[in-house]
TrEMBL record:
<keyword id="KW-0285">Flavoprotein</keyword>
<dbReference type="GO" id="GO:0008753">
    <property type="term" value="F:NADPH dehydrogenase (quinone) activity"/>
</dbReference>
<dbReference type="GO" id="GO:0010181">
    <property type="term" value="F:FMN binding"/>
</dbReference>
<feature type="binding site">
    <location>
        <position position="103"/>
    </location>
    <ligand>
        <name>substrate</name>
    </ligand>
</feature>
<feature type="binding site">
    <location>
        <position position="12"/>
    </location>
    <ligand>
        <name>NAD(+)</name>
    </ligand>
</feature>
<comment type="similarity">
    <text>Belongs to the WrbA family.</text>
</comment>
<dbReference type="GO" id="GO:0050661">
    <property type="term" value="F:NADP binding"/>
</dbReference>
<dbReference type="InterPro" id="IPR005025">
    <property type="entry name" value="FMN_Rdtase-like_dom"/>
</dbReference>
<dbReference type="GO" id="GO:0050660">
    <property type="term" value="F:flavin adenine dinucleotide binding"/>
</dbReference>
<dbReference type="GO" id="GO:0016020">
    <property type="term" value="C:membrane"/>
</dbReference>
<feature type="binding site">
    <location>
        <begin position="83"/>
        <end position="85"/>
    </location>
    <ligand>
        <name>FMN</name>
    </ligand>
</feature>
<keyword id="KW-0288">FMN</keyword>
<keyword id="KW-0520">NAD</keyword>
<dbReference type="InterPro" id="IPR029039">
    <property type="entry name" value="Flavoprotein-like_sf"/>
</dbReference>
<keyword id="KW-0547">Nucleotide-binding</keyword>
<dbReference type="GO" id="GO:0051287">
    <property type="term" value="F:NAD binding"/>
</dbReference>
<keyword id="KW-0521">NADP</keyword>
Length: 204
C-alpha cells in the first residue's frame, strides 16, 4: 500500500479545491492510501473575518492539521500553497521551517515530493512559487515529480488557464467563484494520479 499525503494551505478555499482534485487522482490508483492535511493558520481571526476568509475556511475545518508525522508516514507528499509575491504562503513556510529535525535525520530522503499552487493573475508567479518550493524538497532529498507535457491540457492555448510542467496551478481572478476551472482541476487530478502511480512503483 503506497501512502500519499496532501498538505495544503488555503485562505479562500481555492487551494483546498485543488487538493481535493489531487486526492481524487491519487485515489484512482488501486492500492493507494490518500490523506489530506492543512497547515496551521497564522492570520489573526479578526482579519480572517473581515476578509471573508473565515467563512470559507469553515467549509474545510474538518481537515486535520498537519504535523511532522504527516510527512514521515507518507511515501509521497503533494504540497499546495497559494502564491504570495512569487513564493509560497507564509503559513506553509512556517510549517516547513519546523522540519529541521527531519532534515537532520534524513527522514524524508527518497520520498516523492510534488507541488501545486494558484495566483490571482495570469502571470502572478505560479512557476517561481513551485520552483522555489522545490528547493526545500531537494534539501530534504526528496524525488520531485511534476506534470509532463503528455498531459494535453498543458499545451492548450485556446483557453486561459493555469497548469505548468512543474505542477498544477490555477488563476483565480478576484470574486470569480468558477475557479479553479475544470481544466485546472483536471491537471491537478492528473498530477495526483501520477504521484500515486510512481509511489506505488517505488513503495507499493
Amino acid at each position: 500500500m503506497a501512502k500519499v499525503n496532501i498538505i495544503f494551505y488555503s485562505m479562500y478555499g481555492h487551494i483546498y479545491r485543488m487538493a481535493e482534485a489531487e486526492a481524487q487522482g491519487a485515489k484512482e490508483v488501486p492500492g493507494t492510501d490518500v490523506k489530506i492535511y492543512k497547515v496551521p493558520e497564522t492570520i489573526p481571526e479578526d482579519i480572517l473575518i473581515k476578509s471573508g476568509a473565515k467563512k470559507v475556511q469553515e467549509t474545510f475545518r474538518h481537515i486535520p492539521i498537519a504535523t511532522l508525522d504527516s510527512l514521515t508516514e507518507a511515501d509521497a507528499i503533494i504540497f499546495g500553497s497559494p502564491t504570495r509575491f512569487g513564493m509560497m504562503a507564509a503559513q506553509m513556510r512556517q510549517f516547513l521551517d519546523t522540519t529541521g529535525p527531519l532534515w537532520a535525520g534524513g527522514s524524508l530522503v527518497g520520498k516523492i515530493g510534488s507541488v501545486f499552487t494558484a495566483s490571482s493573475t495570469q502571470h502572478g508567479g505560479q512557476e517561481s512559487t513551485i520552483l522555489s518550493f522545490h528547493t526545500t524538497l531537494l534539501h530534504h532529498g526528496m524525488i520531485i515529480v511534476g506534470v509532463p507535457f503528455t498531459e494535453p491540457n498543458l499545451s492548450d492555448s485556446s483557453n486561459i488557464h493555469g497548469g505548468t510542467p512543474y505542477g498544477a496551478s490555477a488563476i483565480i481572478p478576484q470574486d470569480d467563484e468558477n475557479r479553479p476551472n475544470s481544466i485546472e482541476l483536471d491537471i491537478a487530478r492528473i498530477q495526483g494520479k501520477r504521484v500515486a502511480e510512481l509511489a506505488k512503483k517505488l513503495f507499493g
